[in-house]
């Protein structure tokens, strides 16, 4: 079979899998088909059972890499995934993951068919021991390691002042991967006795992290006479102080590795488009307006000295929706791929052309499967708002763009969801910031990048599938007659869940679910749409369902937070519940894209996410109708309604301690308060026969009398479970379609032509 026929067969397979996932006819292939069962992980492998030491494992040749296996050098495309290990309830510096989980995650990474994992920083010794065990289980398909060396973050000051501690960390990391380190206890960083030598699998060092542009400029200004660095392995002249220092740190890395262990590995700096060396006309270049394009780092000026056999490479965390110049630059928007206009591919071409002759890898790419959106992109590859199927398809599209643009590698972000991550679209409401890790904010895109979901698994967790089968105990309230019969409430670290039982064959055309989230004496005692009914308790929110895509969660006007996010608060937006009887509720919007200007003219208006929209669907992953972003589901008989509402949309700042937004507009601080619990009032209605008139009330629940309060147990550490997302399957199949069996990309137009990836 020739390569073209083989690639076409792979495309047919991928198309079938994608079509099954999209339509619900059938299901994706089992997510871990290629993942072998992890058995005994209690022993440490001997070095004899691993690959023999190799002084030079990977080297740069022109714009690409070559990998040495045995005596042969072969082209190598760095196809990887970023490997974080901060489980729910922890920060990344805590590193509390056990061996069993590490072994399981390594199997999942290997099962994707990629060849590389990337670590941002040094891990505890147990990780490297489990990493070595993985290699002994899979000698025919090893996982290579791009080892990160972390530079401590800072908010002010001079990066060059970190030279001594950063060099110490470089030594610690290199010693550790060679199994020659004994690091004493240190807060927020890995430590211990490192005795497992896994250096044969280390193919590169990717040091540093995305730097803050204002600090880069401050460092340049403080050391304006530092315009060059001449080292034994790397040099640079005609440079900025920051560029010179970074090259010095890369040279130090290669020097220490070579002189101490007689090994050389390519080294790169972890950069991002904000600090790219390109000029972007549509981006403001005034640092008082924007930080995205007023200073850059250019590693095209780096010179590889004769002693350096490994070379160096450049790495960028590049996404299709950020910064604004990636989505708005005219020369990028004119570029198309097999699915249409794609400014991301245009940006990759531009970056690749600048670094001609130097390997360029995209150290992070991907989209999250979050409910919330951080940025919209015209290509459709938004920063969130994707279900798991769309996440997988977009990730494969980006990987193809990386291949077709001529990059030397791409490292997907990320293996698993991480609850500690912050995002600008929600961080003002996550109070205190250190509590973010204890709950899963589905409106935060940064928490949902993984192919492995970290989902709440608490006593209150429910599936929204319309069956009502996982609800136990007595309802919160009930009545004998009318359209609405019973109501249950539950909660976990992500959602508030409701089950409402309706009378058989009496499904109302409209259902209004009023939520009193703080106290019965504050809030709106009227319902929206002019309903002729008075609530016995003040309401902050009303979910209005009409059994269509127009269903949505509304917020009472004083409690609307939209203007808070962009400093346009109106007098009526108090950011706390307030008594009123006007029945005025507004849609819950999220500011996603600010206005964009070019030559002082507006060329892109503001864009908002309709965050309160409620989507019908089934949240049972085993169902062919599974939709990871679903909010409500009605049983086929129309007698059981299940709803889930994200904590963030209900203005919670920390549901683990029952804290809600309760601001005093006269102070600079953002205040919160603990809520005692919820009360619910549900109204069934029918459209009026007279156009323009309010809907006609059919039933009110509960009946006249007490409205019982519901509350939930606070928690300290959340319970969670792992679940392989549908996106895992699609990425797995996409890799099979894009790459030959030896890991090299098919030429553009052959295996990389994934035209069926359209939905």
How far is the first residue's CA from the last residue's CA? 30 Å
- Fraction of residues in β-strands: 15-25%
Give the low-confidence spans: 1-34, 749-759
Shape: elongated
Strand tally is: 40
Q: Biggest sheet, strands in spatial order?
A: 4-5-6-9-12-14-17-18
Structural class: alpha+beta
Number of helices: 11
What is the arithmetic mean of pLDDT?
91
The biggest beta sheet reads: 8 strands, parallel, barrel
Structure, explained:
The chain is an alpha+beta fold. It has eleven helices and 40 strands. A hairpin with a 5-residue loop joins strand 33 and strand 34 (640-646). Helix 2 packs across helix 3 (125-137). It is elongated.
Question: What can be said about this structure in brief?
Answer:
This protein has 759 residues and is an alpha+beta fold. Helices cover 19% and strands 23% of the residues.
């Amino acid at each position: 079979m020739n390569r073209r026929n083989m690639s076409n067969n792979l495309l047919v397979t991928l198309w079938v899998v994608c079509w099954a996932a999209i339509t619900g006819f059938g299901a994706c292939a089992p997510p871990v088909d290629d993942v072998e069962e992890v058995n005994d992980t209690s022993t440490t492998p001997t070095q004899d059972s691993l690959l023999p030491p190799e002084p030079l494992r990977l080297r740069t040749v022109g714009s690409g890499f070559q990998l040495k296996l045995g005596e042969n050098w072969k082209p190598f495309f760095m196809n990887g995934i970023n490997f974080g290990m901060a489980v729910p309830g922890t920060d990344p510096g805590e590193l509390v993951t056990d061996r069993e989980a590490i072994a399981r995650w390594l199997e999942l990474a290997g099962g994707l068919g990629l060849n590389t994992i990337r670590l941002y920083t040094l891990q505890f010794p147990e990780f490297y021991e489990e990493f070595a065990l993985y290699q002994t289980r899979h000698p025919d398909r090893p996982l290579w390691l791009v080892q990160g060396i972390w530079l401590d973050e800072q908010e002010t000051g001079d990066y060059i002042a970190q030279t001594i501690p950063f060099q110490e960390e470089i030594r610690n990391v290199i010693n550790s991967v060679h199994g020659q380190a004994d690091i004493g206890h240190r807060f927020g960083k890995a430590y211990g006795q490192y005795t497992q030598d896994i250096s044969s699998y280390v193919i590169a060092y990717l040091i540093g992290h995305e730097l803050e542009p204002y600090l880069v400029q401050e460092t340049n200004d403080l050391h304006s006479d530092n315009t060059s660095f001449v080292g034994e392995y790397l040099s640079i002249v005609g440079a900025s102080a920051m560029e010179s220092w970074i090259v010095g740190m890369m040279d130090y890395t290669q020097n220490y590795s070579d002189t101490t262990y007689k090994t050389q590995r390519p080294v790169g700096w972890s950069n991002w488009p904000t600090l790219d060396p390109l000029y972007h006309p549509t981006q403001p270049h005034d640092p008082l307006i924007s930080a995205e394009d007023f200073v850059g780092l250019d590693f095209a000026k780096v010179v590889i000295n004769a002693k350096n056999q490994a070379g160096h490479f450049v790495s960028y965390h590049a996404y299709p929706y950020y910064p604004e110049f990636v989505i708005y630059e005219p020369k990028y928007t004119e570029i198309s791929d097999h699915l249409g206009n794609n400014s991301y591919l245009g940006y990759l071409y531009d970056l690749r052309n600048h670094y001609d002759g130097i390997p360029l890898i995209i150290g992070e790419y991907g989209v999250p499967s979050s409910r919330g959106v951080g940025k919209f992109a015209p290509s459709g590859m938004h920063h969130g708002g994707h279900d798991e199927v769309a996440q997988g398809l977009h990730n494969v599209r980006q990987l193809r763009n990386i291949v077709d643009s001529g990059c030397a590698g791409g490292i997907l972000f990320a293996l698993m969801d991480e609850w500690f991550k912050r995002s600008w679209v929600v961080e003002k409401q996550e109070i205190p910031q250190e509590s973010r890790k204890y709950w899963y904010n589905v409106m935060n895109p940064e928490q949902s990048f993984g192919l492995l979901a970290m989902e709440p698994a608490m006593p209150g967790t429910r599936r929204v599938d319309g069956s009502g089968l996982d609800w136990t105990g007595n309802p919160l309230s009930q009545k004998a007659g009318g359209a609405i019969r019973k109501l249950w409430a539950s909660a976990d670290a992500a959602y508030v869940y409701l089950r409402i039982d309706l009378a058989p064959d009496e499904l109302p055309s409209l259902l209004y679910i009023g939520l009193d989230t703080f106290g019965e004496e504050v809030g709106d005692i009227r319902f929206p749409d002019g309903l002729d009914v008075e609530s016995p308790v003040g309401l902050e929110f009303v979910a209005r369902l009409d059994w269509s895509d127009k269903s949505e969660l509304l917020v009472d006007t004083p409690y609307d937070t939209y203007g808070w996010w962009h400093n346009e608060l109106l007098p009526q937006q108090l950011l706390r519940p307030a008594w009123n009887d006007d029945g005025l509720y507004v849609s819950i919007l999220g500011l996603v894209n600010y206005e964009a200007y070019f030559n002082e003219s507006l060329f892109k208006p503001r864009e908002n996410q309709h965050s309160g929209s409620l989507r019908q669907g089934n949240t049972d992953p085993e169902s062919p109708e599974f939709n990871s972003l679903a909010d409500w589901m009605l049983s086929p008989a129309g007698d059981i309604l299940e709803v889930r509402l994200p904590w963030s949309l209900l203005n919670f700042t920390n549901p683990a301690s029952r804290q809600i937004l309760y601001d005093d507009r006269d102070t600079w601080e953002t205040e919160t308060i603990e809520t005692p619990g919820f009360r619910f009032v549900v109204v069934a209605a029918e459209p009026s026969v007279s156009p323009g008139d309010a809907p006609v009330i059919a039933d009110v629940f509960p009946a006249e009398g007490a409205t019982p309060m519901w509350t939930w147990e606070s928690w300290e550490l959340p319970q969670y479970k792992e679940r392989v997302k549908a996106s895992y399957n699609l990425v797995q199949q996409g890799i099979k379609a894009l790459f030959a069996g030896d890991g090299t990309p098919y030429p553009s137009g052959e295996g990389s032509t994934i035209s069926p990836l359209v939905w």
